[in-house]
């Protein structure tokens, strides 16, 4: 505990030292870095540390399959057995090229459905720690910086009410000058 805040270990001793013991519980953090910098590895360590402490953990993936995550964990000698993994894939109709051109499935519906499925996965698991990977997919669905900011604020407020400690991953593959999440998150880890 630091200044009355309870801390959640990241599972990485050197990082915990730098952070003064870990991440403040019940807060939302941004973990950003270019592709290949280790965001997924840090996120898995964060969740594995929570699971080892008896906490419920949830990895929500919009960018990788469950199998890819499991293989990545195995490459480090880890098992995600104690981590709930929710693979959020687009509805089948979005994968059909002819449906993609339809006005019936606008980005508004896609964004709303994606957000609702994130909330539903949380409600099913009721985790103490959450990883949301990756914000770039949400940014693409939002299609504008205003809608993206509103969506990130909605996610932040939802998770804050649930008292979950959240890592939102961003691969910085879009506008590098967009600091939307920086202004919303309680802290930013840059790899």
What does this structure look like?
The structure is a single chain. A 6-stranded parallel beta sheet has the order 5-4-6-7-3-8, with helices on both faces. It has helices spanning 13-18, 39-52, 66-75, 92-95, 97-100, 107-125, 135-142, 145-162, 180-184, and strands at 7-8, 23-24, 28-32, 57-61, 84-87, 129-133, 165-170, 187-190. The chain is globular, with a radius of gyration of 16 Å. It has 191 residues and is of the alpha/beta class. Helix 3 (66-75) links the parallel strand 4 and strand 5.
Characterize this entry briefly.
The chain is of the alpha/beta class and 191 residues long. It has 9 helices and 8 strands.
Give the SSE layout.
Layout: E1 7-8, H1 13-18, E2 23-24, E3 28-32, H2 39-52, E4 57-61, H3 66-75, E5 84-87, H4 92-95, H5 97-100, H6 107-125, E6 129-133, H7 135-142, H8 145-162, E7 165-170, H9 180-184, E8 187-190
Parallel strand pairs: 3-7, 3-8, 4-5, 4-6, 6-7
Antiparallel strand pairs: 1-2
Helix pairs in contact: 7-8
Strand order, sheet with most strands: 5-4-6-7-3-8
* Order of helix and strand elements from N to C terminus: EHEEHEHEHHHEHHEHE
Number of helices: 9
Q: Which residues sit in consecutive blocks of at least 5 with pLDDT less than 50?
A: 92-96, 98-105
Distance separating the two termini: 25 Å
What brief labels describe this structure?
191 residues; alpha/beta; two-stranded antiparallel sheet; 8 strands
């Amino acid at each position: 505990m630091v200044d009355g805040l309870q801390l959640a270990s990241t599972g990485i001793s050197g990082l915990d030292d730098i952070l003064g013991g870990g991440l403040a519980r019940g807060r939302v953090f941004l973990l950003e870095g270019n592709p290949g910098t280790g965001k997924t590895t840090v996120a898995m360590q964060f969740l594995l540390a929570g699971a080892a402490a008896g906490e419920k953990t949830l990895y929500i993936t919009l960018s990788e399959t469950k199998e890819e995550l499991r293989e990545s964990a195995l490459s480090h000698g880890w098992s995600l057995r104690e981590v709930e993994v929710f693979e959020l894939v687009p509805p089948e109709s979005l994968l059909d090229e002819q449906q993609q051109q339809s006005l019936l499935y606008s980005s508004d519906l896609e964004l709303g459905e994606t957000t609702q499925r994130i909330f539903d996965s949380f409600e099913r698991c009721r985790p103490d720690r959450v990883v949301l990977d990756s914000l770039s997919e949400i940014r693409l669905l939002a299609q504008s910086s205003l809608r993206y900011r509103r969506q990130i604020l909605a996610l932040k407020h939802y998770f804050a009410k649930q008292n979950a400690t959240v890592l939102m991953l961003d691969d910085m593959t879009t506008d590098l000058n967009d600091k939307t999440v920086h202004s919303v998150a309680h802290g930013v880890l840059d790899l």
